Amino acid sequence: MADLNAVLMRFLEDRDSFKNVDGTIRHFRMIAERNYVVKFPPTKDISERVLWPVSYAEWRGMEDARFVRFTGEDHANHYFATYTAFDGMGVSQQLMCTEDFVSFETHPLAGMAARGKGMALFPRKIGGVYVALSRADHESNWISTSDRLDYWSALSAIQVPTRSWELIQLGNSGSPIETEAGWLVITHSVGPMRTYHLGAMLLDLDDPTRVIGVLDTPLLSPMSHERDGYVPNVVYSCGSMAHNGTLIIPFGISDQSIGIATIATEHLLEALVAT
Hints:
By secondary structure, the protein is mostly beta strands.
């Protein structure tokens, strides 16, 4: 930061940039501090490796991390997480990467698809490019592609709110899971009284902008005893795992407690309605 500050101070001597020098310096500093590395002693138990806010952009929260194990030639066996940085007023997207859960590297995300909340990376490249789920318009599910991990601009809308329980907004609930039938995506939706539900859809393996099927009813809704909490009427997930034919879905309940739901993956795929 000392080297960066020395360069930025040169703006003070440049008459052409003086009018906007304060804003320019502030933006450069904010970008710089959002790129950082956190390392833990390898001997420290994984339950004690807690990531706390480092940059001003995230000082009020590092939220909704969507972790995924990446496969393929590029970044094979790296674990990526997209998460929301919250500064108390605005939100921004960050990308975290680790190979060993000892060292974590973090960078800001940019581009139209990175606005707002809720990006989720696919676990491998498709057609030679990176692919991500996005909620670029704050209410619908989109697919974005990029040849780099830090900038996302190309967008295609794949699912818009049409049913009563999703009229306020749609979004993803974590990275897609690859199955023989297609990319299985657990989604979330918000309806009247800001009641959240989890749903599901299936995307084509080679062309994820093509929706093969959707669940015609909510997969998971808050039960009566789950409606009260810090944020009421919410069930929310940031990632699921397929294991031995079972889909395991950890989910938050009204920002107060945590539950785990399970369903046979085959049964869920059979329930998806062709579009």
